[in-house]
Backbone:
């Protein structure tokens, strides 16, 4: 892997994370799920010992750490959005359940 492309997996993960944030903000959870799986597969390759050694040999640890910090910050925002969505969905389900019970009671 040449020096110019060593950071490609991290920059791709950052780009995907930014896209995930946009999808979450738009409430497009189906597309989100597809992209998060793709990003996860790419992130797994970053655990490769040879890749990490290549970063160190190219003196790219600081740049890699910076990219990882950006990804982690986006992940925190994603977690907050996902939690808010979960709470909204649970609330909607409770309301729908109450409405269904009221309709059943009225229909008797």
Residues:
């Amino acid at each position: 892997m040449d020096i110019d492309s060593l950071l490609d997996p991290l920059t791709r993960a950052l780009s995907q994370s930014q896209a995930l944030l946009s999808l979450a903000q738009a409430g497009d959870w189906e597309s989100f799920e597809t992209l998060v799986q793709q990003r996860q597969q790419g992130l797994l390759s970053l655990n490769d010992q040879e890749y990490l050694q290549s970063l160190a040999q190219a003196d790219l640890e600081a740049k890699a750490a910076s990219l990882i910090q950006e990804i982690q910050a986006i992940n925190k925002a994603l977690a907050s959005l996902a939690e808010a969505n979960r709470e909204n969905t649970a609330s909607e389900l409770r309301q729908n359940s109450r409405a269904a019970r009221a309709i059943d009671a009225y229909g008797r």
Summary: Residues 3-107 form a domain with the Methane Monooxygenase Hydroxylase; Chain G, domain 1 fold (CATH 1.20.58). The mean pLDDT is 88. The longest helix spans residues 61-107.
